[in-house]
Amino acid sequence: MGLDLLTLAFERPAIDWHAFAPELVLLAAGCLITLVDIVFLEKARPYTAALAGIGLLATAVPLLTLAVDGTERVMFDGAYVVDEFSLVMKALFLLAGYVVVLLSTNYVAEGDYWENEYYGLLLASLMGMVMMASARDLVSIFVALELLSIPAYLLVAWRKRDLHSTEAGLKYYLMGVFASAVMLYGMSLLYGVAGSTMLADIGTSLAGMETSPAVVTMGIVFVVAGFAFKVSAAPFHTWAPDVYEGAPTPVTAFLSVASKASGFVALLVFVFVGFYARSEVWEPLFWILAALSMTVGNLVALRQTNVVRLMAYSGIAQTGFMIAPLAVAGHGVVNGDQALSAVVTYLVIYAAMNLGAFTVVIALARRSGSAELTSFNGAFQFAPGLTVAMSVFLFSLAGIPPLGGWFAKFEVFRVLATAGEPWGYALAIVGAVNSVVALYYYASLARRMWADDPVDGDLGPVPVTPSIMSALTLCGIVTLAFGVAPQLVARFTDVSLLAFGG
Amino acid sequence: MNNLLIAALSADAGLPLGITEGGSWLLRNVWLIPLLPALSFVLILTFGKRMPHGGSELGIAAVGIAFVLALLTGIAWVDHRDNSHDQEVHVAVVQFDDHGVGHGDGSEEGHGGGHPSLAVHRTAIWFQAGGMEFTVGTLVDGLAVMMLVVVTLVSLLVHVYSTEYVHGDRRYTHYFAFLSLFSASMLLLVVSENTLQLLCAWELVGVCSFVLIGHWWEEKPNSDAALKAFLTNRVGDMGLLVGVTVLFFAAGSALPGRFGSFSIAETNALASSGMLSHTALLVASCGLMAAVMSKSGQFFLHTWLPDAMAGPTPVSALIHAATMVVAGVFMIARLYGVFFEGFQIGGSSINLMAFIGGLTTIVGACLAFVQRDIKKVLAYSTISQLGYMVMALGVGAWTAAVFHLFTHAFFKACLFLGSGSVAHAVHSFDMKSDMGGLRKHMPHTYRTFMIGTIALAGLPPLAGFWSKDEILVGTGGWGLLGGTGGNGAYTLMLGMGMVTAALTAAYMTRCVYLTFFGEFRGHGEPHESGPRITVPLWILAGLAIVAGFLNLPTGFQLAPGSLQERFGHYVEPVAGYFPAITHATPSWSLAIASTLVVMGGIAASGYYYFVKVEAASKAAGTSLTELPDGPTTRYPVVAMGYKLLDNKYYLDHLYNGVIANGTKGPLARLVYRFNQQVIDRTVDVVGETAVKVGTVVYDRIDQLVVDGAVNASGRASSGMGEELRRVNSGKVQSYAAILFAAATVLAGVLIVIV
Amino acid sequence: MENLLDGWGITLATFSPLVGVAIMMVIPGGREHQHKMVALVTSLWVAFIGVLLLIEFDMGHTAQLQFAVDKPWIDVISSRYLVGIDGMSLPLILLTMLIVPLCIIYSWDHFPEPVNPKAFLILILILETGMIGTFVAQDLVLFFVFFEVVLLPMFFMIAVWGGEDRRYASLKFFLYTLFGSALMLVSFLALFFLTGADTFSFTGLSDAVAAGGVSHTAQLWIFGGMFLGFAIKVPMFPFHTWLPDAHTQAPTVGSVILAAVLLKLGTYGFVRIAIPILPEAAVVWAPWIGLLAVIGIIYGALGCLAQTDMKRLIAFSSVAHMGFVMLGIATLTDFGINAAIMGMVAHGLITGMLFFVAGSVKDRFHTLEISRLGGLLVQAPRMGWVFGFCVMASLGLPGLAGFWGEFPAILSAYQPANGVPVEVFRTYMVIAALGTVLAAGYLLWLLQRVAFGNPTEEFAEDPNITDTTKHEWIAWAPLLALIVAIGVYPNLVFRVTDGAVDASLNECLRVDERVLTAAEVAELGCSDVYGLGGGSDAPVEHAAGN
Questions:
Q1: Domain boundary residue, one of B637, B670, B691
Q2: pLDDT at C1
Q3: Are strands A80-82 and A73-75 parallel, antiparallel or unpaired?
Q4: Of the given ranges (B7-21, B172-186, B439-453), which has the lowest mean pLDDT?
Q5: Nearest-CA residue of chain A relative to C26?
Q6: Which is nearest to A399 in space by CA: C242, C173, C270, C174?
């Protein structure tokens, strides 16, 4: 009877294999790496990185076909969607993942860490991210989140002989679990209110309310808090510096770009599909998060002496900038769309420039073995090319034209100003002041590299491996191209989610 | 096409300006005269060093040709003045209800309805800005022509004189280059058609003066003097800037469709016809007066002029006696319509200009008494005489002032060059220690110096007498047997003029005694200078004798009527751009009285020096310069007066010690300290505070267990023990606390406010 | 109007330096001579295009945007690649194109430490692109991008090749100016949004504001934001403190470019953007701008008097000189703004020259401490005379370029535009006139201490102290010639700027001296701030000549 009922009730939902193709390819690549590892053991080591890279590139093929096809594919009653937005984000994850693979190639090998597992986990985490881009349902979002997080916890602790790395992994894991708990609590509240796990349903339900009951407010705040942790927005950022510092640097790059982007994807989906009608709750919330993240991140970054910690805090400040448009996104559909595309634009450009910066850090650290700021002194004298590249990325992060970062910031300011309300202008001014503060430490670092003398007087050249070189070239070209011709990025990031939120 | 012409064509019935766009070739092309020395400046700078005479020949040639041209221009003007039938230019104006046009037409009655003297006007577009075209050009009338002749003549003589005087100088070529540039600038100034051009030339002559005063800039006193001259003039130039600006807009307000005008003719004509507000004219006049005070050494901005004697003597003669320093006087004469209305010269008994002029004559003359340096005597004398001219303009005696300018140029240049000749011989300017008895050694210099002295003192029939007498007449304050009928009863100015006449005679007597009489007190054997020095001296002395006859007063029976007031006839404009001034009637009684006063001055001073000092010298056996028990030792009041004069009324202390050093020292330091410690500090503090706040946030908030990581790494070597676990878990606990607390607080706050 | 350079001339001029940069990038750093040649040829090529542009420029229509290019750039924000040249920008563009090759020639054989011609010249060329771009941009976003592009190379130039305190100075320069431009950007965006215009082009925004839609208060705020951005760049008191440090620490060529061109970006922003687009707000702000300008004049001069370092003194003098420029701008009259542009050009030439000379003095004496210098005229007479000449030009001597920036600015302050308080500006005029006295004071005092007198014992026998070299002459001669040429015939500049300035000003600002009826006022669409009355049909008298 029971079995019969179940059999009747379960009808295999129609699966659009084309829509799933990227995930499947990625899965296959991951499996392949694991298989190769099992079969060939140590002999496979030199090839796994290449395999991972090829796997990622292969995943891009179905993405392209989907993009060319252009139709929106909705599956599982709307729980899983492949649309413009998700395609752009998936592409971003894959490219970021590819660059991280490039960065890892020598790093992991030279560190004598386990390689095959490393790439397997990396692909698994990417898998979660790719899924996240399409998830439109509380359950699928949570599953994607855990899928991307758990491998990341392991990766952080990858330098297993290093105390910091272990400590960081543990810390990241614990904090991640706490954050998930908070978020789950929020999700349960929302489910209780709407009676559905579908974000679209939650959106409809919330839109029907006159005001926000406390339970809805709590639900929204807790969910946002959970993802604010993921994107390391203040005051949920505390884990980031320690973890960034402790993790292997390529993983740090991965966390600061891909992981952060996936958090944003979820936030955006929640805001624009689920919470859109309750803007009176999340607008102030994001306002606070944005202002706090920018200010705290920048101010604290001022006193850092370690490049990775500095990048961590700068990343927190950049998060503030990315959140800022959301603080005024509730002002009508046009503004919402603009805010969305501003955030996406920022994410894309940020990915390029931040990965670029980490690439240089990794390249230079290969020589000094340290990420202390002083080890960057006088880099212009022994590594002019890396110095120029680092300057490009740093000033792009600072938002100086004609480097990509300016357009990202410009879009944020534009959205804030276009809201035409005092709060928007206030946040814009906070942002303007913060961009000056940020420039201080970016420019200080650049100046350190250009103008100071090397601490140890060692002027030996820094070896740059081909993979690092290609990562640099990729990031550099993207950063410059998006700055000079922002239309390039704008074409991809001009996406909309609001059609679903209604 | 220039504005004036358009206006003239468009409005026949406008205000007559007293100018014409016609005129003979020479009068229309006077720009050639300044151009020649300007070219020679460039050529000397470029090629001078390679020329056999270091470029001086270029300068002399240029100025010589300019002089010839100026003379020809003068002849052309004489013809033009009497026989011109050119069309007069009118300008359209905005009619004011309470003033009538036509007030200015009265000027034609100034010389009993004589033939109007239309100035020859020519312009070219200089630049355009604000939708308006600004012109550069020439305005040639009697005044300009007279100045052209004087400047080119004195300049030529000074050039010739200099070839000997600065022979072998370390910067011979450079010296001649700047003499040329000065001549060019000065000539440009006198033919200026508008105030802007005048202002430019005004500044340029100032720079040449700066460069030439500081010619021997290796010695600090010289460069100090140059700086002082320039800066004092800049103070006055502030007034010039303001005055020119006010006039520009004031004139513009009366001209339809124009927002301003720099044209001298237009401004004067509008002012004379009562179309400009009196306030604007007064402000402008006061501003311009400041410029006059600095450039023409009027009290209390005169202090730079004596110091300017640090320059080579020919420069002093040319620039600081005959030409540049009269630029102020010239400007008043040029813009007389403005000043006449602004200071309401007609019909009153005192005004700022007359008073400053009068005061300056006395102040300068007094200072001339206490100088040891022969050039400084002459410098203060120049100040005093310039005061005379300004005073004359202040009382409305325009022609007298300009005539005095004319004669003064000759005799003062003669005196300066004479002093230079003396100094050349004795290698010093100190009359008391290095001169005396030179009449025997330097006969030519002595004779010419005497002629200059007599002319300066104002004894008939030399030039100074005539011009000074006309000024005294022009005050209109005499009233005894004629000498009245001026623009007002300026009795005070008459008194000042008389006092100065006596003082002048007295200090020149002293100067002559100390230099040429008594016994030689210097070293070596002085000898007469060469012909390149003495010939110019004699030419100037000759002019000092005859120049006065050019303007014999009307009613002077010893000369035919056709020779009377020739200068006034040709120089004083009878035109719309010139105010309606009235002329006082000359008076025999005043002439005799002033002559007696001069004789009195000479007698008193002569008695002291030629009789008593001479006697004391004989008694002492050396050549004394003062009585050992002179009045300064006997009377405390006199001693105090002497001290006051010796310190130049303490003005230099005020300017250098208080104002200049005060600005340069405490004030500038204060401002800079403010800059560094307040404004700049603010910026730094903002930055430092940001870093501090960052530190606080990091230490107190962000890293609740700040030493966790540090300690952990420090103890890491001892293994991953219990301790590490405790530290790190503690840190995670606090992180988690923040996480949960933040989420709760945010939720709580939003529940409350939403 | 068909001509040779339409459509591509400006683009070519702007981006040619980047081509040079690309070529230099691939040449190895060791081949110094090749780098120098590439840089020089590139900059001369740009200058050549500049000359062509000048020749082709239609002087009859200076108000018109010539050689304009209008291509889509960033569609998503309606920003276009809109460039063009009119009378207001032409002089500044040519100034830039002139200064850059001269700087390259000047540095030919004495590059600052650490010697690295490749990097140094690349930075100069990037700077050139940024500077030219700023002057040709006619779109706010494009303008902003170029405006900021300039910062980077200058930052590196100071940070790497600067003096002892270069770390502090370079960062201060960068942060200070970025702070202004960040707020400026917010204002630009607010303006864009509030007008509801679908364009960032200057004219488009100007029309949109004139058509109404932006409240008076909003205009004031937006102008305030722009003011901050531009005023810091100028720099105006009290935002000037980055300047002395940056100038003092920058290498000679950096100082020259900074003084000659970079400072003009701020004033150019005022006359090109702030005032034409927001005339109403400009009227309200004008007295305050004027106040800061005259404070700057006096303050800068007093600051100069307190200096003991030659270069720092010249730097401070920029504060005073730019005060005159800003005073002219604050009058909002075409006369004043013409004077301001003239002032920019003149200051660029003259102060650029002064920095050149200061640099050469430093090369020889290895110090710029005024008290240790002296007798330059004895040891290096030609250089001494050049220095004296520049000092004279700088203090506003008629017949040299400086005068035409200074005097017309003072003149225009007597009669500012409608709605700007006349009495206040007349007071400013007198204060500014006082500034000319102080200017003469500090400059002549500098001249006296540096050039006059006999050399100090320290340097009297120093064989390093030579007179002007060939490279110096080549670099300086064009500047010196221009200072004289513009001084004697100011129409060289005024003729170009006049029409464009006139056209850039709002009709309401310009109706001085005219009698307007209420109907006319209404027709012009002027707001109350212009003080045109217009409440009744009775004629309103605006002749305020006295």
A1: B691
A2: 46
A3: antiparallel
A4: B7-21
A5: A385
A6: C174
Helix (H, G, I), strand (E, B) or coil at B362: helix
pLDDT at A355: 94
B719 part of a folded domain: yes
* Contact: A167, B746; criterion CB under 8 Å: no
Model confidence band, residue A170 (pLDDT cutoffs 50, 70, 90): confident
Looking at the domain assignment, is residue B670 inside a domain? yes
State the nearest Cα–Cα gap between C149 and chain A, in angstroms.
Answer: 5
Query: In whole angstroms, how far apart are CA A381 and each of A388, A394, C239?
Result: 11, 18, 35
Q: CB A231: neighbour CB atoms within 10 A? A: 28
Please state, in angstroms and as integers, the Cα–Cα distance from residue A96 to each residue in A239, A251, A346, B487, C317, following that order.
22, 11, 14, 96, 52
Residues 6+ apart with CB under 8 A from B676: none
Q: What is the pLDDT of residues C423-455, one digit of tens each?
A: 899 899 889 988 888 888 889 888 888 888 888
Q: How many CB atoms lie within 10 A of CB A71?
A: 11
| Residue at B716 is within a domain | yes
pLDDT value at residue B517:
82
Supply the ipTM of this predicted assembly. 0.86
Q: pLDDT over 90 for what percent of chain B?
A: 2
pLDDT digits (tens, 9 = 90+) for C102-116: 999 998 888 887 888
Q: Indicate yes or no: CB of B129 within 8 angstroms of CB of C306.
A: no
Per-residue pLDDT at A344 exceeds 80: yes
Is B747 among the domain residues?
yes
More confident residue, C20 or B691: C20
Q: Which of B689, B750, B753 to mutate to test the interface with A (most CBs of A within 10 A)?
A: B750
End-to-end CA distance of chain A: 41
DSSP string, B522-548: SSS------HHHHHHHHHHHHHHHHGG
Instruction: Return the amino acid letter for C363.
Output: D
Range A475-497 average pLDDT: 86
**How far off is chain A from C444, nearest CA to CA, in Å?**
37
Residues 6+ apart with CB under 8 A from B602: B457, B505, B506, B509
Contact A205, A284 (CB under 8 A): no
Residues 6+ apart with CB under 8 A from B364: B297, B299, B302, B380, B381, B382, B383, B384, B385, B386, B387
CB contact under 8 A, C377 and B217: yes
CA-to-CA distance for C10 and C57, rounded, in angstroms? 12
Please tell me the predicted confidence (pLDDT) of residue A3: 53
CA distance B189 to B747: 82
Residues A104-122, buried b or exposed e (16+ Cβ, 10 A)?
bbbbbeebebbbbbbbbbb
3-state secondary structure of B398: helix
Residue C378: band (very low, low, confident or very high) from pLDDT cuts 50, 70, 90: confident
How large a percentage of chain C has pLDDT more than 70? 92
Amino acid B8: pLDDT: 46
C105 close to C40: Cβ distance less than 8 angstroms: yes
Cα A416 to Cα A329: distance, rounded to the nearest angstrom: 9
Token pair recorded at residue B754: 């939403």
Q: What angle do CA C351, C354, C358 make, to 5 degrees?
A: 140
**Number of separate domains in chain B:** 2
To which residue do tokens 């960034």 refer?
A: A244
In angstroms, the CA A357 to CA B659 distance is 59
Q: Give the structural domain span for B679.
A: 649-691
Option in A218, A221, A302 nearest B691 (CB): A302
Q: Nearest-CA distance from C490 to chain B in Å? A: 6
Whole-number pLDDT of residue B113: 45
DSSP reduced 3-state for B138? strand
